[in-house]
Specification:
There is one protein chain. By secondary structure, the chain is mainly beta. It has one domain: Metal Binding Protein, Guanine Nucleotide Exchange Factor, Chain A (Beta Complex). 5% of the residues lie in helices and 39% in strands. The chain has 1 helix and 11 strands; from the N terminus they run E-E-E-H-E-E-E-E-E-E-E-E. The chain has a 5-stranded mixed sheet with strand order 9-10-4-3-11. It has a 3-stranded antiparallel sheet with strand order 1-2-5, with no helix packed on it. The protein has a 3-stranded antiparallel sheet with strand order 6-7-8, with no helix packed on it. Strand 9 and strand 10 form a beta hairpin. The radius of gyration is 15 Å and the shape is globular. The protein starts with a strand and ends in a 23-residue tail after the last strand. The chain binds zinc ion (2 copies). The site of one zinc ion has 9 residues, from loops. One of its GO terms (molecular function) is metal ion binding.
Amino acid sequence: MDQTYRGSCLCGNVAFQLEGSFAKFYLCHCSRCRKTSGSAHCANLFAPGAKLTWLKGEKEVSFYHLPDTRFARSFCKTCGSMMPTDVNSGQLVVVPAGCLDSEVALKPQAHICCDSRANWDDGFEDVVCFSDMPS
Ligand SMILES: [Zn+2]
Ligand SMILES: [Zn+2]
């Protein structure tokens, strides 16, 4: 069922709307995702045939395509927040889950590219949790 989702970047220069539905939700641990996210993995939602509309700041969005691969990223030029990427105009929109302001019902379905995990990316469920910043 199609829904409308909204998202934005950290500095607020960029905002978007997505009309469609998410078919897949993957946590990707590949080295490209680790580099671009600066973290253990990306959390990407995949929306085939969804309609991506920039509500503001379309010109503030930079696009990077890694040569000779299908890897691409969109991000805010000012704050660096990852933004959705419309692959092959309208065929597939890849949405970094963290940039959404709307809630998503779908839960992550799989960790992928696990052979590329960082050596410290293991046993997170055993790491102590604080409700806020520890003092
Ligand atoms: Zn921004
Ligand atoms: Zn990846």
